[in-house]
Amino acid sequence: MTRTRLLAIALFVSVALNLFIGGLAIGWSAHGHWRGGFMGGFDGPRMGLGMRMVERHGPDMIGEKAKRWLKRIVGEDGEAAVDAVWEERKDRILPIARNIRLARQDVSEQLKKEPYDADAYRASLRNLETAMGAAVGEVHDAMVDLLDRLEPEPRRKLAKKIWYGRRHHFDED
User: Using one digit for the tens of pLDDT, what is the confidence trace for 24-41?
Assistant: First the structure.
């Protein structure tokens, strides 16, 4: 086979593969499969799966998922502490989650408004930032409370799991 013929075949395969991948990308985009990205994709923030589940199944759903995740990590020794922290904090956490959902909806509405108002959009983004900051603060406080109540072994398990992917830096004593 000549070099020219090999190059022609390689070019044909390359073009065919690029057209196939481009078709998939256009198809996924047209059918809304790529809307999740940062802040909900190109058409503005979307209510996340967790918040949709809360809307359908009630506000305790968020706590139940988080509790199951934490209990799986800390084991039986830490289950009572997880339950206690959730019961003490859920009346503060759930309104914060609701505020985040409402702030995201407002950001989305500001993006869709005609005429576009940059100041209103900026204000809605600041409201979302404030709501997210409140959530981070409350979750951090809840984790401090939980870790304070855990025995050393469940606390070590949790610390190892939430070490943000840096397990090789975690002391394995």
Answer: 677 666 555 444 444 444
The pTM of this model reads 0.55
Q: How far is CA 61 from CA 40, 52, 86, in A?
A: 22, 10, 12
Q: pLDDT (tens digit, 9 = 90+) per residue, 64-96? A: 777 788 888 888 888 888 889 888 988 888 888
State residue 62 phi and psi, 5-degree precision: -60, -45
What Rg, from alpha-carbon coordinates, does the chain have? 24
**Spatial separation of the C-alpha atoms in residues 24 and 77, rounded to whole Å:** 49
How far is residue 67's CA from residue 71's CA, in Å, rounded to a whole number?
6
Write b or e for each residue in 94-109: b if 16 or more Cβ atoms lie within 10 A of its Cβ, otherwise e.
bebbebbbebbbbbbe
Task: For residue 63, give Cα distances in angstroms to 24, 26, 93, 94.
Answer: 38, 38, 9, 9
3-state secondary structure of 91: helix
